Amino acid sequence: MTRTDASDRLNRLDLIEARLKSGEALILADLAAELGVSRRTLSRDIALMRARGVPVEADRGRGGGIRLSARWGVGRMALSYDEAIDLMISLAVAEQLQSPLFMANLGSVRQKLVASFGPRQRAQVARLKSRILVGQHASNPTRESLAPVDATAIRRLHRAFVERRLLQITYSAPERPPTSRVIEPQFLHYNAPVWYVLAWDHLRQDVRTLRCDRITNAQPLGETFELRPFSLFEPALEGDHVLQ
């Protein structure tokens, strides 16, 4: 089989699987015509899909048809690095909540996700749970002032948080001009539905608590930082050092 033939077949297998996952019951003859292959070729493709673990069921009869088994569950998922980071943070939040609703399979899901990272990244994600804090619900005035987040800035914040990289941001506090500052995102703090980052602020050389919905223009820098003692940030949880 040539490289082109192999590529065509892989693309065809992906297309067949996507069609099956849509819930359609597919007629073999119609599908073969749509894909521009013979029924024999299509039958070989289906046999290969079964060998790869996709539970394809076939109807007997002249027309023939294929569908996914009713027992088919979640298959393999391909996550980007940023998606995996977001999921790790979400799992850490769920672990901190200690809700029975979330705990049934949380451990095994976390283990599988950690295993998908490389050795260096595994060391970084190992301490995520201890760096994510869940507090009380935000006050009504705070909830009412909540603004839509800058999705790109938050994605970069998450990456800098996990990789322990300095982050340059623009921060906008009420009735103050926006400021550019370099921070160490040491902890994330959730007062539903508001997220804060507990940071060491290089501009002030002090602890600051920054609302994530007020962060824009985030740019991770090459320099990394060491985790500072949590005791340094405890006063910030009681309202000190907060840039509301």
Give the topology, please:
Blueprint: H1 3-21, E1 26-27, H2 28-35, H3 39-51, E2 56-59, E3 65-68, H4 81-97, H5 100-103, H6 106-115, H7 119-125, E4 132-134, H8 140-144, H9 151-163, E5 165-171, E6 179-191, E7 194-201, E8 206-211, E9 215-224, H10 234-237, E10 242-243
Parallel strand pairs: 4-6, 8-10
Antiparallel strand pairs: 1-3, 2-3, 5-6, 5-9, 6-7, 7-8
Helix pairs in contact: 2-3, 4-6, 4-9
Rg on CA atoms, Å: 25 Å
Largest sheet: 7 strands, mixed
Give the proportion of residues in helices: 40-55%
Q: What would the average pLDDT be, to the nearest integer?
A: 82
Strand-and-helix sequence, N→C?
Answer: HEHHEEHHHHEHHEEEEEHE
Question: Strand share of the residues?
Answer: 15-25%
How many domains is the backbone divided into? 3
Tell me the overall shape: elongated
- Class computed from helices, strands and strand pairing: alpha+beta
Instruction: State the helix count.
Output: 10
Report how far the terminal alpha carbons are from each other. Answer: 64 Å
